[in-house]
Design goal:
This protein is of the alpha+beta class and about 350 residues long. About 25% of the residues lie in helices and about 25% in strands. The chain is globular and about 55 Å long.
């Protein structure tokens, strides 16, 4: 219902001119949704009581914080009939399909739904018509899509719910986000842009880029997405490679959603003790996220944020005019829970 309501608002917002140009894929929905369900193996590896019981095909290393004390048993406080009651459980860790991230060169194009909506001519942009010859620009759509919840997997052990990923809904679209279109507005909302959007801070990102190659993210370098900077948090990427720009804009959106309190931290001690709840994460833990490209091409393994497209990009951007410049990533988030 919320998804339908969001789409109706977009359709009936007054506008004076269309900003649509080029092609919007009309046959993409079946491919995207089928791949989301067919790639459910990306939830692996799964850990039960701290022991890995199933591996996976991911290029991301499964690194988890040790819990004090190191025990497979957890304890959460739940309110039953108005009375706080401690409930014991077993720690379970896995990777949840959090959302679908659309990175598109045409405003108003939603490949996940094979849908094209009219947008006002003074917003949005076209990734093929950049103001600067050395950069690319894309719109981004964050669509909540929890496959595990739809398939009712882990539901009986209270492990699928999170404020970040409950249900199906349009979480954010950048066509109506001024900070995505204007780097000065973005810098005002994220003041650390002045510290990190410069060549000196950029040098540090080479360490994150090197770690990505072997499946790791360096969380303390939170301004880095591989060898690139996520600042400013706008749709402009300092590369003419559509694939590289799409991956970077996807990472920017994850940071942006975390900063705005729309993505919460679902791994760590707070998930398996006390109230056992996800917490706001204004500075993202990027090692908790991974990308899995499902359109227009297909790469069979999810990978850490910022991994070079030299490893996965050759299978993604197909040389088809109606598909070029439209990318869809399935976003996975590391999750811990106390299963009762």
């Amino acid at each position: 219902m919320r998804l339908l309501f969001s789409l109706l608002i977009l359709i009936f917002i007054p506008f004076n001119a269309f900003a649509l140009s080029g092609f919007c894929p009309k046959d993409s929905a079946v491919q995207i949704i089928s791949r989301q369900f067919a790639s459910i193996e990306n939830v692996f590896p799964i850990r039960i009581g701290g022991v890995k019981i199933a591996g996976g095909v991911s290029l991301q290393r499964d690194v988890r914080i040790p819990y004090p004390p190191p025990s497979p048993v957890c304890m959460c406080w739940r309110t039953i009939a108005g009375i706080p009651v401690p409930l014991p459980g077993i720690i379970i860790g896995y990777y949840a399909p959090l959302a679908t991230m659309e990175i598109v060169k045409m405003p108003g194009c939603f490949p996940t739904f094979s849908l094209e909506l009219p947008l006002p001519g003074n917003v949005g942009g076209d990734g093929s018509d950049d103001d600067a010859a050395s950069s690319s620009y894309f719109e981004a759509h964050y669509i909540k899509f929890n496959v595990l919840e739809l398939l009712n997997i882990f539901a009986d052990i209270a492990c699928t719910f999170s404020p970040s990923s409950s249900g199906i809904d349009i979480g954010w679209i950048t066509e109506y986000d001024p900070s995505w279109h204007d780097e000065s507005i973005s810098a005002f909302l994220t003041p650390e842009t002045l510290l990190f959007a410069n060549p000196v801070a950029q040098i540090a990102c080479s360490a994150d880029s090197a770690a990505n190659v072997i499946g790791y993210d360096i969380d303390v370098l939170y301004w880095c997405s591989g060898g690139a900077s996520v600042f400013p948090l706008s749709g402009f990427a300092g590369t003419t490679s559509f694939i590289r720009a799409a991956s970077l804009d996807s990472a920017k959106m994850l940071f942006k959603m975390s900063r705005q309190g729309l993505l919460w931290d679902t791994t760590g001690v707070h998930m398996v003790s006390g109230s056992c709840m996800a917490l706001p994460s204004p500075i993202w833990q990027k090692s908790n996220f991974s990308q899995f490209p499902i359109y227009p091409g297909f790469f069979p393994k999810r990978f850490p944020i910022g991994m070079t497209d030299a490893i996965w990009g050759s299978l993604i951007n197909l040389p088809v005019p109606t598909k070029e410049g439209f990318f869809v990533f399935q976003i996975y988030q590391k999750r811990d829970c106390c299963a009762f």
